[in-house]
């Protein structure tokens, strides 16, 4: 059949009878709302940042030059202090001149001293200042039912799910101690292994504070009994402080402060004195507080909080 010619004399191939062949569609048709398979990747439904993040806003011109080779580039001490949020460079210079700054155990008074922030231990007025920007210090509000592990062979929700994106980005993180699955609240997460070790070790006596909702109305003498010590199956245990916050209708809410780190220590102590725990929340590690942080959220610790942790363990 002859095709009609166009004005330029070429055959017209746009006839309605000329159907183009298309490649066959591969695989089953999927509706637009149907999501592709996820290959068993962990669901990060709770990995949300806390509303308040203690991330200092810095002048771009005040940042240390990048050092991809990891050679430990040295930077002027006053600039390091400014980057750490201690003070402006001018005020940092005054601090140095007044002998208030210490580097690796020695007082520094000369201006322009260069230090390697990745290894230097810097103190101002005896308090350590974190100048290594690669260090990570986070507060996590662990939800009830989540496990204090970085992975779980049974597929149960765990701390590792919440920090998975940070780990995937190359951060090697440790959770400081554990909270059992039924216990909620503050869990510190860091990549400073020595700090994590010291915070967990009972010899440094870093206090942890808990709120516990228990069965029964607590008697007045219970606090003294817990402070004096209670015999458990693995030895005596005692609290540092104890107070009753509420008591009514056969239930009580109490606050417990202790530096013991044995497994289920708070639950076992209260069960031993006749008040089984119905709900348990850790609210403080040292002076770092959970506050109103949402369950499942992460918060970057502020400079004062980080310094208080180093001071508590003598670093």
Automatic annotation (TrEMBL):
Residues 1-21 have a biased composition (Basic and acidic residues). GO terms for biological process: enzyme-directed rRNA pseudouridine synthesis. SMART domains: S4. Signal peptide: none annotated. Its EC number is 5.4.99.-. GO terms for molecular function: RNA binding; rRNA pseudouridine synthase activity. SUPFAM superfamilies: Alpha-L RNA-binding motif, Pseudouridine synthase. Residues 1-74 are annotated as: Disordered. This is Pseudouridine synthase. It comes from Tsukamurella strandjordii.
